[in-house]
Amino acid sequence: MWLVVGLGNPGPSYNETRHNVGFQVVRTLTARLGHHRLRPGLGAHVGVGGLGSTSAVFALPMTFMNRSGGPVGDLASVYGIPTERILVVHDDLDLAFGRIRCKAGGGHGGHNGLRDIARRVGREFLRVRVGIGRPPDGISVSDHVLGSWNESEKAVTADLLEHAANAVESIVTDGIHAAMNQFNTRQPQAGRDPQDRKSTASSEVGEHT
């Protein structure tokens, strides 16, 4: 069994923000798999269902980004899931918008959600990092991360979410190294098929992020 976690902040005002792309990817994946209902439990919205030839707990922590470690640790403990089978989907400022990268372990890169998860379960969890790019001149990091997709981004966001969901499935079914070979190598472009895309993640915002 796997624990697949999408990072974000709770509440409708955050739904379409860049920082909530982890939520958006996991919702895309669960809808694709037919696991539409995520129910409150252990500080998250949680569902259990099939993923490839195995099963997974899908979770969206509802504790705000900088306290994501509590629900992740509690769910891993309750379901008996080791750290190396925890897969976290999150935004990354240091990747261009639309890029995706898969990664095993590593630091938090300033991302408060990753920092708190590592504090609770260790650093060796897996990641799907979804690039949101750096803010343009004159826009703060916080405003960029907590802002909504712009019009050009919205035109390809659906493809990006599907592509990131593909990366999650690839890690679970094919292994992290095969997924890295598939998703970490090619520069995507707007309008291309989602199978031709990729990404990474990190954040530098303060309280509640």
Distance between the termini: 28 Å
Radius of gyration: 15 Å
Overall strand count: 7
Helix and strand string, N-terminal first?
Answer: EHEEEHEEHEHHH
Number of helices: 6
Major sheet: arrangement of strands: 2-3-4-1-5-7-6
The shape is globular
Major sheet summary line: 7 strands, mixed
Give the full name of the CATH homologous superfamily.
Answer: Peptidyl-tRNA hydrolase
* Average pLDDT taken over every residue: 89
Helix content range? 25-40%
CATH architecture: 3-Layer(aba) Sandwich
CATH topology: Rossmann fold
| Beta-strand percentage range | 15-25%
The helix/strand class is: alpha/beta
Indicate the topology.
Layout: E1 2-6, H1 21-33, E2 39-41, E3 44-51, E4 54-61, H2 69-79, E5 86-92, E6 100-104, H3 112-121, E7 126-131, H4 141-145, H5 151-174, H6 176-183
Parallel strand pairs: 1-4, 1-5, 5-7
Antiparallel strand pairs: 2-3, 3-4, 6-7
Helix pairs in contact: 1-5, 2-3, 5-6
